[in-house]
Amino acid sequence: MKKEITNVDLCSIVNELKFLEGGRFDKAFLIDKDDNRELIIKIHKDGSNELVISVGKYKYVTLTSYEREKPKLPPSFAMLLRKYLKNAKLLRIDQVEFDRILLLEFSIGEKKYKIIAELFKDGNIIFLDEEDNIIAPLRVEVFSNRKIAPKEKYQFPPQKPLSLNKLEYSIAYEIFKDFFEKNKEVECVRLVSRILGIGGLYAEEICERANIDKKKKNLSEEEIKKLFLTAKELYEEVVRNRKPNIVIKDGEEVDVVPIELRKYKDYEKRYFNSFYEALDEYFAKFLTSVEIKKEKSKLEKEIEKQESILRRQLETLKAYEEEVRKNQIKGDLIYSNYQLVEEILNAIRVAKDKKGWEEVKRVIRENKEHPIIKLIEGVNEKKGEIIVRLSSDLDGKIEERVVLDIRKSTFENAESYYNKAKKFKSKIEGIKKAIEMSKKKLEELKKKRDVEIEEKKALKKKVKKERKWYEKFKWTVINNFLVIAGKDAITNEIIIKKYTDKDDIVFHADIQGAPFTVIKTNGREVDEETLMEVAKFSVSHSKAWKLGYGALDTYWVKPDQISKRAESGEYLKRGAFVIRGKRNYIRNVPLELGIGVLEYDNSIKITTAPPDTLKKHFIKYVLLKPSNKDKGKVVKELKEIFKEYDVDDEDILSVLPPGGCEIKRQ
Known about the structure:
The radius of gyration is 41 Å and the shape is flat. It has four domains: 7-148, ibrinogen binding protein from staphylococcus aureus fold (Roll); 164-271, Helicase, Ruva Protein, domain 3, CATH 1.10.8.50; 312-425, no CATH class; 469-665, no CATH class. The longest helix has 62 residues, at 275-336. The chain has a six-stranded antiparallel beta sheet with strand order 18-19-21-20-22-25, with helices on both faces. It is built from 16 helices and 29 strands. By secondary structure, the protein is of the alpha+beta class. Pfam families: NFACT-R_1, NFACT_N.
């Protein structure tokens, strides 16, 4: 089973992922498992794309279409990337020197950052500044020639003089030939692997395509040239003529490769449009099978533990039932031999009182043939007990050794056994209930095992929701007017430049850092009620919400009053605009907001709105208030409230006001 990609594989993936260049960094997640770590970077380019970089036991890079269970509390490395790279532009994605090293370069403002993924040994992911100083590595490593640690200058590992992507250079063949001539006693497959820095799989492929025995030594110049040209052809195929496939042997997926390989010519294959799709499919299933084994092992241990408990309970039940039976029989035997037991007890009491226990034991020893004394099999003088063998023919032949207390009457001895039988009967009721509970728990565990394993087997592919243009922003619908608002400086600028028409009305809360809020009028008149509702929406989606304000002033202007041109001597930051002319203020606007679902644009959507709008036009809603409550918990509560409307985390998070919030009332 393939557990890591080769440098040839990485070359294929990087070529396919070039389309992500120019996209925007959204979020980073880190999934930390026992022997593996997956860094997931969300990049917005023609929709949301999840780039997966896996290090540890399994090393690969792919775009994934499968859902992964992300941690509720992101680890510090993921949070660090979010802090530095939020909305950063992905400038380039590259493979470094045809090695198993991936490079992602981002820019935000004037600053540049890099993420380096080393996909060899145990693997590592390193975050760098624009001068290649390490901001943070996923893990600290120390080598003989370099150190991976914060504040250290990052150095790439030593590179080989030749690689598959450099065979076009005029000097390449001379280096290749020289290496073979200096190592004539080494098998050619090893030489191909060493000089080109490729793994055995592709080195063997080159030998086979060149029709040269991989174990051959001391090659002729013609054979060396043939290997060189074959290596060039293989590289061209990897870059320009891929045929990605998963290789299947005996029903099991054993490899995933970007091109057809002769080694696998007789194997079953599944073909894909892209190599990253094939990798995603292969590793998603492979890692799921690993998780299933772990989960099965964990649940099997729980099942075994419960089976052991049940087994002990059943043994206890059997022992209790046996105690009931024995004590009942002994009580019955005393009653069926009442006269005999009475005589024995009286005789022993008299003998013991007159001559003591030693004389009693002597008499018993010396009268083994006596018809009554021979029934006494033992004496326990400390407890004042004798052991008598009693029998009965009432329900078939029954014979038992019965312990009699000489201080008690025959009736009391019988009752003592009956009472013991009653106590064990009482215990039997308790153990039977415990057994039923254990059986139920065992059944539930087995069912849980089967369900969880089936759930894990059924890999969930993400279904990309088709989002309308306005859903890139904060948005709502108030009295049939579409209202949009910026999320940050970038979306503020996009709204004004691209989505604001001359008849629209633009709001801006009177606080620094507030978004532009635009009423899309489509030439219609806007009444006072609508202006007031949009004013509430405007202030509620400003920084005032996060600061816990109760009310705030806001104003509205026409689009032609907004300019990107600063006055002489002024400087405008990104996303900032100049407002000229009269500002139409609405004073002391309360921060009131809720979230709900409404029917708009031929589908059910979730968004926020002021309370009066929610009451008039929304199907279902809850009111919100500013709070420091964990956003993840709030999203979970809202998903539960609106579960029948198929909303996900992203639907909710994208419309919530800045800062924290909590549900006020339903």
